[in-house]
Amino acid sequence: MSTVGSRPPDCSRFRFGAFEIDFANSELLRNGFHVQLQRKAFSLLTSLLKHPGQIISREDLCSELWPGERSGSSLRLNTTIRKLRIALRDTAHSSKYIETMAGLGYRFIATVRQSDIPNHQEQTPERLRIAIVPFEDLSAQVEDRFSEALTDMIIASLACASDQIEVFFVPETRHSSYSEIACAVDAPYVMTGSVFRTAGYVEVNTKLVHASNSRVLWAHSCGLQRDMIADPEEISRQITDSLFRKFQLTPQTTFLAGSLPGIARSSSARPGVA
Asked: Is residue 265 within a helix (H) or strand (E), and if so which, with residue range?
């Protein structure tokens, strides 16, 4: 087999599984977050991605990574393969990305897709993994826990509305950054909200941000006058509908009050919520 070339693929960004590789910036991302990867491990991943599904011999990889060196390159390749698998959360016995072909070499077995998108287009993720934090009540009347009920209703509504969304509740985030909140549950998106109430008015503001750069991807605001009932279920429906329209998601089921689905939560989730 011919030696693997050193030039990265023509496209600068590719996706496989939960990962995205940015050749222009020599960066590997997992769910939008930077993955620490040594230079040789990144070069090895580049070589494998150039020929997905094809077997690349150990000799070719050694020549690519350590040109002109013969002594010790095989052992260094073993170490680099191991480091790359750790970064990809992969194993030799149950491979999702790098398969060992005994006596032949290695091949990249995951589906690889181009992820370059023109700047003027908005990228819609295949699956929204959202960390939802408790909505903040900015009004003086907080004793009835309206904001807590609204948070739970939004979580339930999103969780059972579509299999394109996965939600995680992350409590006690007053002093946490978006990236810290997202890392707690390995979700690239964070939803926050606030509630403001007076005797005759209720206003709810919600936004979804990308945790890696704090960019606001979507925002929604709704207000109810005194002659309307401030129903957490109705507000959660409005928020869910707005989010679905923004990301062009397809509803799977109709949310029914009192039928809470199983919701993934961080280990510190408050008790009493399904």
From this structure: strand 264-265
Q: Which amino acid is at 252?
A: Q
CA–CA gap between residue 244 and residue 164 (Å, rounded)? 10
Q: How far apart, in whole angstroms, are the C-alpha atoms of residue 134 and residue 151?
A: 6
Using alpha carbons, select from 128, 190, 209 the residue that is nearest to residue 165. 128
What are the structural domains of the chain? Answer: 13-114 (1.10.10.10), 128-265 (3.40.50.10070)
pLDDT, one tens digit per residue, over 82-121 is: 999 998 989 888 889 999 999 899 999 999 988 754 433 4
pTM (predicted TM-score): 0.53
- Phi, psi at 265, each rounded to 5°: -135, 155
Neighbours of 228 (CB within 10 A): 12
E strands of 98-247, at which residues?
Answer: 98-101, 105-108, 113-114, 128-132, 136-137, 165-169, 189-198, 201-210, 215-225
